[in-house]
């Protein structure tokens, strides 16, 4: 099967918002990549690179007219926004991101490893990952912040809810780090499929329960909750997210920009004892304990 990939470049601050807008335009998946590692939009000799640190790649089926998607990018980033539109066969698309996805360490114990590469440290806690069409490889600062938080928790025998589970990376990491049971919830059926496939690849599928919101059982209760989504939904769904958590349970939230963190921390602070905000590349993690 053939695909069309529309690629542009922006800052990390804008990338997630733009990705959400392109999904609304019909993109099947959005991939974020560090532009410093894979410079597709190189300046000409003597020019200064004026664009950002994140490449945004939107994948569409081959029969999609991407004119509207391109117009959307220009409306958000300006008429001079860099754009690259190309047709990809399955093998080309897979190779394009497989070549740039390397094993990464988070915290002291945890490694995220592409399923097609050798693990650097067989004695570490290794999560073998194939993201499929779902977001979450660990390369984005929000995912990295959550993985590092999980690595620092005592998860032995605990129940964890991963709200917005995506590729399952956080859920599987929690299980590999000792959690007895993890519940993954996501609004995207592709995320449920990707999480299930990755759980089977890591031998933890028997301890991972996956639900669309409409299908989840009532009365779920967890020792820890992690939610790596966006600040808007985190605010709107605060009571639902905290409703999963036992009193005294720990929570970590990400997908939050620097400018949004203080207000959101105060909002969750009404019901939780909130830790100092942790920032990385304009993105933040809020964590705390439910009162």
TrEMBL record:
Write out the residues that bind S-adenosyl-L-methionine: 143, 164, 186, 228
Top-rank lineage group of the source organism = Bacteria
Catalytic reactions on record: L-lysyl-[protein] + 3 S-adenosyl-L-methionine = N(6),N(6),N(6)-trimethyl-L-lysyl-[protein] + 3 S-adenosyl-L-homocysteine + 3 H(+)
Which compartments does it reside in? Cytoplasm
Q: Which UniProt keywords apply?
A: Cytoplasm, Methyltransferase, Ribonucleoprotein, Ribosomal protein, S-adenosyl-L-methionine, Transferase
Q: Name one GO cellular component term.
A: ribosome
Give, as one word, the top-level EC class.
transferase
Q: What are the recorded GO MF terms, alphabetically?
A: protein-lysine N-methyltransferase activity
Q: Which SUPFAM superfamilies match?
A: S-adenosyl-L-methionine-dependent methyltransferases
| EC number(s) recorded for this UniProt protein | 2.1.1.-
Q: Which BP terms does GO give this entry?
A: methylation
Record family assignment: Belongs to the methyltransferase superfamily. PrmA family.
* Described function: Methylates ribosomal protein L11.
Q: Which HAMAP family did the record assign?
A: Methyltr_PrmA
Name of the protein: Ribosomal protein L11 methyltransferase
Organism for this UniProt entry: Gallaecimonas xiamenensis 3-C-1
